[in-house]
Amino acid sequence: MTRKAIAVSVILLLLFLASLPILTRIAMVAVDEREARAAPTFDPLEFFDGRSEGRGTIQTLDGQSRQLHVESVGQRDGDSLTLNQFIAEGDKPIRKRTWRIVKAKDGYATQLTDADGPVDLAVDGNRLTIRYTADGLHYWQRLTLAEDGRSAVNRLEVTKYGLNLARVGEIILRK
């Protein structure tokens, strides 16, 4: 093999290796889109109407983890839902918070007793994404509805100044 052929082969190999992250991301997006098409659309008013229970784990920046248990009771009234949650986090006392979700023309108008201001709630297929700020911390949450429509996986991240302070992994089941 000539030096020129070796140089061309090395360049092609480097280009291929450099493109792997892009190809991987494209493949992941394709899988996400297939999963989104397979499951029903996430309707938070329907999913959280009635009783549900969430169980998961909170992992913090310092490497500690705590168990999480959330009992929820939702009451639907037409195009709105009031959702009361009772949250047990490790050894902390149980705390209550309330969501108010109203279906609007262009999405949802949402309020949360924990939030410092507006709550952004968006549906994309079987995924529900929630963003809000509380006590100077930024919360990003994605719930992915299962094909059965009766359970969802919840992933939540808490950040401040771009630093990830905590992550939650939770399974929510309708009762």
Query: What is the rounded Rg?
Result: 21 Å
Count every beta strand, where a strand is a DSSP E run of 2 or more residues. Answer: 10
User: How large a portion of the residues is in β-strands, by DSSP E?
Assistant: over 45%
Largest sheet: 10 strands, antiparallel
Count of helix runs: 2
Shape: globular
Strand order of the largest sheet: 5-4-3-2-1-10-9-8-7-6
Structure write-up:
This protein has 175 residues and is of the alpha+beta class. It contains 2 helices and 10 strands; from the N terminus they run H-H-E-E-E-E-E-E-E-E-E-E. The chain has helices at 3-38, 44-47; strands at 50-60, 65-77, 80-89, 95-104, 107-112, 120-124, 127-134, 137-145, 151-160, 163-174. A 10-stranded antiparallel beta sheet has the order 5-4-3-2-1-10-9-8-7-6. It is globular and about 75 Å long. The model has no long low-confidence stretch (mean pLDDT 87).
